[in-house]
Design brief:
Layout lengths: L3 H26 L17 H56 L13 H50 L7 H28 L8 E4 H18 L3 E5 L6 E4 L1 H17 L6 E9 L2 E8 L33 H11 L3 E6 L6 E6 L2
Parallel strand pairs: 2-4
Antiparallel strand pairs: 1-3, 4-5, 5-7, 6-7
Helix pairs in contact: 1-2, 2-3, 3-4, 4-7, 5-6, 6-7
Length: 358
């Protein structure tokens, strides 16, 4: 009963019944005021009398029809105006909402009322507005974070170089190493931002080749294993005995796996464990990275792949992470047509990232 087409159908039926029954109602309420001339009983009806009766009858019928049409027209116009306003009010509110969104008033919401279709449209509009508001907040935060991330190494480079020029710092190998480290950090940040920009524009270049994914997993584990040993963390690798062939850009997929491993090592305590595994689900390759750290707060899970997002806001930016690693993982995996998800371990210890390739 709350569907828009049902409402319109009921309105049409009601209007049709109203128009059809109105003449009978008016005739009942307002009977003819002019009685027809009646001949006496037994008196023959002459042609003149019959013609007079016919003229009076026609006049009364046309007067009744005219009154009916006038009353029906007035009621129809009034009812039509009220009905059209009632039916179009949700659309008017939607139009006002879209105009407000176009003027960057992203906090605008419209009431969800009316038929099922209108409530669905209003709900979709409000969800769109909420997404746009969140994206705008992320964009502003990203600009602030990019500015901060770029400003830090630039200030270090500028300050140290100015110190060397002023003779405050000696031009030693140690000083050159500091400058080189900051330059490398700046270059890596710019490269990461460039990759993310390409990925969001769906222009991330992929040099696909049919390879054995076990090699990607082994290479990634060998790359980060020295860091795991240095931190006192056990890195466990599990791969199947059979080859898992997949058409991929080996360098980029390896970069994604290494980013997950690096993230896991940063959040795993000494004597902890990081597990890297490769398996297949039907014909879908699955790569997972699980750690034995403290896990991820539930409030942080929906945003863990956002650019510059840090679940630990107090962590020093100088730790080497700019908050782009997981965003790059998502960009690379989605460029391959896959998905990446994260969830806390059922035991409450650690988090598990899962890459599912097509």
């Amino acid at each position: 009963m709350n569907r828009l087409w049902v409402r319109i159908s009921l309105v049409i039926v009601a209007v049709a019944l109203f128009i059809g029954l109105l003449p009978f109602a008016l005739r009942t309420i307002n009977p003819p005021t002019r009685p027809l001339p009646r001949p006496d009983i037994g008196e023959p009806i002459s042609a003149e009398r019959l013609e007079a009766i016919q003229r009076v009858s026609e006049r009364q019928v046309w007067e009744a029809v005219a009154r009916t049409l006038i009353v029906g027209a007035v009621l129809g116009v009034g009812g039509g105006i009220l009905l059209s306003r009632w039916l179009s009010k949700p659309l008017t509110e939607l139009e006002q909402g879209t105009r407000a969104i176009g003027e960057h008033e992203l906090g605008t919401r419209i009431p969800e009322k009316g038929s099922s279709e209108m409530r669905a449209v209003a709900s979709s509009f409000n969800q769109m507005a909420a997404d746009l508001e969140r994206e705008e907040a992320l964009r502003r935060n990203m600009l602030a974070d990019v500015t901060h991330e770029l400003r830090h190494p630039v200030h270090v480079l500028q300050g140290n170089l100015q110190g060397v020029l002023d003779g405050v710092f000696p031009l030693s190998l140690a000083e050159i190493a500091i400058l080189s480290e900051q330059a490398h950090h700046l270059t890596r940040l710019v490269d990461d931002l460039h990759e993310l920009a390409l990925a969001e524009a769906h222009e991330l270049p992929l040099n696909r080749q049919l390879i054995d994914l076990r090699q990607v997993v082994r290479d990634s584990a060998e790359t980060v294993n020295p860091l795991a040993v240095q931190e006192g963390i056990v890195l466990v690798m599990q791969v199947p005995d059979e080859a898992v062939m997949f058409s991929t850009d080996m360098a980029r997929l390896r970069q994604a796996v290494q980013n997950l491993l690096g993230n896991a090592l940063r959040h795993t305590p000494t004597n902890g464990t990081v597990q890297l595994s490769l398996r297949t689900d039907g014909n879908r390759p699955i790569i997972s990275v699980a750690d034995s750290g403290s896990g991820i707060a539930p409030k942080d899970l929906p945003y863990i792949f956002d650019r510059f997002y840090r679940s630990d806001a107090s962590r020093d930016r100088g730790s080497g992470s700019a908050g782009l690693g997981l965003a790059i993982v998502k960009a690379i995996v989605e460029a391959h047509g896959g998905t990446v998800t994260v969830a806390n371990a059922a035991s409450g210890q650690g988090a598990k990232f899962v890459i599912s390739l097509p």
